[in-house]
Amino acid sequence: MGKNVQPWYDENIHTPLFVWDPRTGSAGARRTELVQTVDLGPTLLEHFGLQPTPRMQGRSIAPVLRSDEPIRSAGLFGTFGGHVNVTDGRYVYMRSCATQENMPLYEHTLMPTHMASRFAVSELVDAELVEPLPFTQGVPVLRLPGNPFGNPYSFGTLLFDLAMDPEQQNPLIDDDLELHMMRLLVNQLREADAPVSQYERLGLPVSGDPGPEQLLAASQRHLYEDARLPLAGSSEFRDEFPGVNTRLADLAADPLTKAVLVDHLGPVVDFLITNAATSTVVDIAALTPGLRYDRLKALDSALAATCEPAAK
């Protein structure tokens, strides 16, 4: 499945870190304190007697290596348009978007390319040059609507205790703990200079502390339960063209059926056509919990309607 659809469980994000520091005289030892990959740069500079650059946000892990001394209270991680997550080393809080629309969501860039392709013209139509972000050193950036692969709303907001539930099978509903983790998350977002739109998407305050009115784990629990249900299979739909069992490339070749796809799935259709042209919509649904049976059925009916004779 890759790492773009499901929440970033520990299998995806908890990277084993092996370090040898000859200054410590220690080998084969474990450390329990929280570190992040952003700490590697300052660690190497400190090792060679150099100071981190002023804009570096990481910290040297030397104290952790020496005596398991803590260097950070929380770590931030996530993926574009997905959950924004925070951990204190024991608890993990996976904050979903506040509404099903997963908006507002923007890409900010001066190099409009995806990992393996340039931005399509349709993606750039609404692009605008906006004021610099705090970390762009006075340089304005291009802002355009974002098209994430997947929607965290399909799973809802999740809170796990890794000590008691290391396989993350039983999300917690604990308002006091969620409020504590929300505060850690907001502090991390502010340290990372997150844009205002990110707070709006997540339903978090731009300034001040989050409060009980921003709790989401309990109210979104039904989304997590729905995401655990079996997905619809190809045998549950028609095999005739056009339908959800038709290859995306074939649906995209017809302007009418492509318009139906865009209407039901949004701008992500162009990305899917480029990267999964031989897949069907049902195939894609296996990677997108939000595409449950009812949505697939509605899309299948809409596609079938494109080849019906017009009423006189």
> How many separate helices?
12
Structural class: alpha+beta
Distance between the termini: 47 Å
Mean pLDDT over all positions: 91
Name the poorly predicted regions.
none
Shape verdict: globular
Order of helices and strands: HHHEEEEHEEEHHHHHHHH
Helix content: 25-40%
Taking all Cα atoms into account, the compactness measure Rg is 23 Å
Largest sheet: 4 strands, antiparallel
Beta fraction: 5-15%
Strand order of the largest sheet: 1-2-3-7
**Record field, number of beta strands:** 7
What does the model show?
31% of the residues lie in helices and 9% in strands. The chain has helices at 10-13, 40-47, 62-67, 121-124, 175-191, 196-202, 221-227, 248-253, 255-265, 268-275, 281-285, 293-305, and strands at residues 75-78, 84-87, 91-95, 106-109, 128-130, 141-145, 158-161. The protein is globular and about 80 Å long. The N and C termini lie far apart (47 Å).
Output the keywords.
12 helices, 7 strands, 31% helix, alpha+beta, three-stranded antiparallel sheet
Q: What is this entry, summarized?
A:
The chain is α+β, with helices and mostly antiparallel strands and 312 residues long. The chain contains 12 helices and 7 strands. It is 31% helix and 9% strand.
Question: Which helices and strands occur, and which strands form pairs?
Answer:
Layout: H1 10-13, H2 40-47, H3 62-67, E1 75-78, E2 84-87, E3 91-95, E4 106-109, H4 121-124, E5 128-130, E6 141-145, E7 158-161, H5 175-191, H6 196-202, H7 221-227, H8 248-253, H9 255-265, H10 268-275, H11 281-285, H12 293-305
Antiparallel strand pairs: 1-2, 2-3, 3-7, 4-6, 5-6
Helix pairs in contact: 9-12
